[in-house]
Amino acid sequence: MEVTEIAAKELRYQKHLPKDYKSENAIRWCPGCGDYAILTSLQKAMAELNIDPHKIAVISGIGCSSRLPYYMNTYGFHSIHGRAAAIATGVKVANPELSVWVATGDGDSLAIGGNHFIHTIRRNVDINILLFNNKIYGLTKGQYSPTSDRGFVSKSSPYGTVEDPFRPAELTFGARGTFFARAIDVDIKNQTEVMTEAAKHKGTSVVEVLQNCVIFNDNIHNRISDRNWKADNTIILKHGEKMIFGKEENRGIVLDGWNLKAVTIGEDGYTLDDILVHDATTRDNILHMKLALMDNIDGLPVALGVIRSVKEPTYEKEYERQIEEVQMMTPKRSFTEFLLNSPNIWEVK
Ligand SMILES: Cc1ncc(C[n+]2csc(CCOP(=O)(O)OP(=O)(O)O)c2C)c(N)n1
Ligand code: SF4
Ligand SMILES: [Mg+2]
What we know:
Layout: H1 3-12, H2 35-49, E1 56-60, E2 75-78, H3 84-94, E3 99-105, H4 106-112, H5 114-123, E4 128-133, H6 168-174, E5 179-184, H7 188-200, E6 205-210, H8 222-225, H9 230-233, E7 234-237, E8 244-245, E9 251-256, E10 259-264, H10 286-292, E11 302-309, H11 315-329, H12 335-341
Parallel strand pairs: 1-2, 1-3, 3-4, 4-6, 5-6, 7-11
Antiparallel strand pairs: 5-11, 8-9, 9-10
Bound molecules: thiamine diphosphate, iron/sulfur cluster and magnesium ion.
């Protein structure tokens, strides 16, 4: 075998490393920002999936989170505020072979870009949306966002907001989303797993990453990201596994009438057999919604991991199929034939 042949073969079977997805651009996020961990997790997930960097496109809108494409050694587009999902849809439809990712913030996707966000999900375009949720506008220096809690005091709400927030899972399921997962910035392992699953899913994958903005909204997710409380206040859901959580791994989730309830195994008559087994693949989204909305009320933990992953037709495949069908029905004609046989003929006198 010639040296060039060996080199070509090696290239074909190259196992990519996270560093292959890193660009040389200097990172301009504040020291300690949660965005660094999201970037690292994404590069790890891409290495795990071993996708060639030139087969990836990362599209963003505007915001601190939307700077992410600069730091990736892939194709990318730092686009217009709120329009990342629309542009990513165009990219995917034009080239379905690409692995398409959207990096976006709670302001970018749920305020100005709310329309594009829900319609992309409804269409089930096969793209992966990483929603950095820091519950604030970071780039513009601290205005409240559509995910800020009622009563939140900020530069644009000095007396507290008088409105309820969007909950990204609720919007996703309302738009008939096929994939929803959640992760915390401090947990790189879980983020990487979730992003890998998102990439494998055919359809719009929404990954909500709870991200800390150290400058304008520090510790907003502390209740669940702090290592002292994380185990008791969160649960990592895994398809086919029992919903168990807690420092002692003795807490579980059961169905109590129409509601979910957190119980201690071995207390009040509850045994391991009573604990629910997670099914991410069931089409009915009622239980997925209940799991996604658990919020440390009545001891229920915040759900992390893949909450929903359901197979449905994707937009770009249906689109391609339709084009093929229409082309089959209309036999191809030469340009001359088209000109001569076209019903639209005018005689120029
Ligand atoms: C059309 C338009 N309107 C408003 C802005 C100002 N603007 C830039 S980023 C941003 C919000 C960013 O918040 P988010 O998406 O949550 O990103 P973060 O900075 O928190 O990561 C706003 C309002 C803009 N750039 N363009
Ligand atoms: S302002 Fe907040 S979100 Fe933006 S880079 Fe700084 S810490 Fe991160
Ligand atoms: Mg934000």
